[in-house]
Design goal:
Structural class: alpha+beta
Strand order of the largest sheet: 1-4
Strand content: 25-35%
Radius of gyration: 13 Å
Shape: elongated
Helix content: 10-25%
Mean pLDDT: 87
Number of strands: 4
Distance between the termini: 26 Å
Largest sheet: 2 strands, parallel
């Protein structure tokens, strides 16, 4: 992103990264197994974005 000159990065992830009672939905026992791999990947991607301290970014969760 930095090399391309993009000033703001907006991405859409899944609701699995949302927290309820201190736990992420994707980690709950009732989370659908068939979409868990994608939801886990989206959560991991969000965690990677959080490591960047120079990029102006927004992550929007949707269900």
């Amino acid at each position: 992103m930095k090399k391309s000159g993009v000033k703001r990065f907006i991405t859409v992830g899944g609701a699995g990264s949302l927290f309820i009672d201190g736990n992420q939905l994707v980690d709950g026992p009732d989370f659908p197994a068939d979409i868990k791999p994608g939801a886990t990947a989206a959560r991991d991607y969000l965690n990677k974005i959080k490591e960047n301290t120079t990029l102006d970014w927004t992550f929007s969760a949707r269900n």
